[in-house]
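Long-time lurker, first post. I've been practising inverse folding by hand and with some scripts of my own, and I keep getting stuck on stretches where the structure tokens seem ambiguous. Below is the full token string for one chain I'm working on. Before anyone asks, I'm not after the true native sequence, just a reasonable design that respects the backbone. If someone could post their per-position residues I'd love to compare against what I wrote down in my notebook.
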């Protein structure tokens, strides 16, 4: 049986000895009744309203337990150590710990209970449990939702989530993954977290910073006019952008399957993305990156500014019409110079930079694409003009005398420290993960000496893939930081 299902109103549905191979969600709503015996269900069930649903001797049942407004309760969800199955679980209408839940879920000899979604207006405590998914739905709110510090595959001794419209507490509970669903006109800010799935809906606006979406049990998607801005984020899962939505990526890593359809807009700068996305209908895809300058020794004469651009669209529309220009900004004296672009379409060398009259210091190279005179996407790179030194290969994007290469890296990261900006010597080099935990301390050097991080933590174990912050301190306390992505 390959189909989605919605059972509504007072309808009744029963199934015996059936294997369900459908990829759509099945839902029980509004006083409906669903009964399954000796069945295999590899996809999701949603239980809402006054529905009743029962499973007997079923396997691979992915069931979301929605906790509606007014619900209060303490859930204890059993699970095994391998996460292949979650053991038999019964949530009955007469449970002393559950109040305000109008639906009824009965399970007998059934495996793989998927997760729990505490909705606005409820108060739920999950205790002494191992749960596959803790999901949050964000709807209209007076103030923006702000959530941080989520981390998949994590034990929580006693954590209360600071959400303005519900009370959710995890006690002595292990969570395999967090899934987030912004909806309606909600504004959601997600920081320093690792989650399994994010799908945005309606006219919601989501801002992500330092977030990893690993696709545990799902993907990253935008639907129904929603907008997402992601900075320094990692996506090790499929991306789906559709239905008049817009995704903006900056300094992010998203190389896997990417689908952009039905008036979706995918805009990326300074990011690693899929170079052959599936772009259909009236959708657009645009990615801009700067690859030069390749050296940071004395910049004399004419220096080419090289950029790469991917501009794709569906068959129903033409690619974006772009106006492009480049800017060099001297951060030493705050002066700026507009470079004359060579073409309106970025390809290889987009501008030539004459540095003869440029003073010593750091320069930011901008390539800005004006999209149909309504939007702008900007990529940038950093270069130095210094006293005469031998030419060396640029160690990634340099920031105030401190850089590293390659970025992203897979096995080892080479760090290079210039002179500290205030003339003091560097004292420490610390490496932190996405949640701010110290992973490794390295001995500091000065001048042009290189420091090698072998990608391992202080215990000698290989650090997982993700975003890492390298913090360099001088002996008088000045702090310099930069982010590096480990593949």
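-- Answer (accepted) --
I ran through it position by position. Result:
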């Amino acid at each position: 049986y390959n189909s989605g299902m919605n059972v509504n109103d007072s309808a009744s549905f029963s199934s015996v000895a059936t294997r369900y191979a459908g990829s759509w969600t099945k839902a029980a709503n509004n006083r409906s009744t669903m009964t399954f015996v000796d069945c295999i269900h590899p996809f999701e069930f949603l239980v809402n309203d006054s529905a009743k649903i029962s499973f007997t001797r079923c396997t691979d049942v992915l069931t979301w337990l929605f906790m509606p407004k007014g619900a209060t309760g303490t859930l204890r969800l059993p699970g095994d150590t391998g996460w292949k199955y979650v053991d038999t679980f019964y949530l009955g209408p007469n449970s002393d710990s559950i109040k305000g839940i109008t639906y009824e879920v009965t399970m007998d000899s059934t495996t793989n209970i998927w997760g729990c979604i505490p909705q606005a207006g409820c108060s739920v405590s999950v205790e002494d449990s191992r749960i596959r998914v803790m999901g949050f739905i964000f709807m209209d709110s007076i103030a923006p939702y702000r959530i941080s510090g989520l981390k998949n595959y994590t034990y929580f001794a006693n954590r209360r989530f600071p959400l303005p419209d519900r009370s959710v507490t995890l006690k002595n509970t292990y969570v395999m993954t967090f899934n987030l669903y912004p909806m309606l006109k909600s504004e959601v800010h997600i920081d320093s977290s690792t989650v399994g799935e994010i799908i945005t809906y309606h006219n919601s606006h989501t801002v992500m910073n330092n977030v990893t979406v690993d696709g545990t049990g799902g993907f990253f998607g935008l639907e129904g006019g929603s907008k997402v801005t992601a900075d320094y984020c990692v996506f090790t899962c499929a991306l789906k952008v559709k239905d008049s939505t817009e995704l903006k990526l900056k300094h992010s890593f998203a190389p896997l399957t990417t689908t952009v359809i039905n008036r979706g807009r995918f805009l990326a700068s300074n990011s690693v993305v899929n170079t052959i996305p599936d772009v259909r209908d009236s959708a657009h895809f645009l990615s801009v990156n700067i690859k030069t300058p390749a050296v940071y020794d004395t910049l004399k004469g004419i220096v080419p500014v090289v950029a790469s651009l991917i501009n794709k669209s569906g068959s129903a529309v033409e690619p974006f019409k772009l106006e492009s220009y480049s800017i060099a900004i001297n951060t030493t004296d705050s002066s700026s110079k507009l470079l004359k672009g060579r073409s309106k379409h970025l390809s290889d060398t987009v501008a030539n930079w004459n540095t003869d009259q440029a003073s010593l210091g750091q320069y930011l190279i901008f390539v800005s694409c004006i999209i149909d005179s309504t939007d702008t996407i900007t990529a940038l790179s950093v270069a130095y003009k210094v006293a005469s030194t031998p030419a060396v290969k640029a160690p990634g994007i340099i920031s105030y005398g401190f850089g590293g290469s390659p970025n992203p890296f897979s096995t080892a990261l080479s760090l290079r420290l210039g002179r500290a900006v205030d003339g003091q010597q560097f004292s420490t080099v610390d490496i932190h993960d996405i949640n701010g935990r110290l992973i490794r301390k390295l001995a500091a050097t000065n001048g042009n000496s290189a420091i090698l991080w072998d990608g391992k933590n202080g215990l000698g174990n290989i650090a997982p893939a993700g975003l890492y912050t390298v913090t360099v301190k001088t002996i008088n306390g000045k702090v310099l930081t930069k982010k590096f992505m480990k593949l």
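A couple of notes from the structure itself: The two ends are 39 Å apart (CA to CA). DSSP finds no helices and 43 strands in the chain. Happy to go over any region you disagree with.
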